[in-house]
Amino acid sequence: MKSDKTREVAIKVVKAAALGATAKNEINTWKALAGKFNHPNILKIYTIYQSSSSMYIIMEYCNDGDLEGYLKKKKKITEDEATKVLQATISGLAYMNKYDIIHRDVKPANLIISKGVYKICDYGLCKVIDKKTY
User: Fold this and answer.
1) Is 61 helix (H, G, I), strand (E, B) or coil?
2) Whose CA is closest to 124, among 31, 2, 4, 10?
3) Active-site pick, 66, 80, 105, 130
4) Is 105 a catalytic residue?
5) What CATH class has 9-133?
6) How many angstroms separate the CA atoms of 103 and 9, rounded?
7) pTM for the full model?
8) Domain ranges across the chain
């Protein structure tokens, strides 16, 4: 049966030469988390492909940029907007926490905006916490 469903995606291409010493860990983290999150405030990663020269991350398309760019353009935001950003961030982080995952790189550049919804992105520094350690 053929599906008529289509979706726009973004493809992040990371060249192997651009990857640092910790690249293998970051790649493994991205692969492990791909498709795991189903939350409105977390960017969806559909799949990851890897060739000898690059890694291709297929993810949800968000056309409104990131919070860092938005803040530079607006110069300041209202209290209501700030509250919306914080609520979205806390909601996404709480969801990750339920699965014993910490993000470790929350910043305006890692909050993508799509149709007014703020989404946490960039899982390269995420870490699964061993419950025995805390």
Assistant:
1) coil
2) 31
3) 105
4) yes
5) mainly alpha
6) 23
7) 0.80
8) 9-133
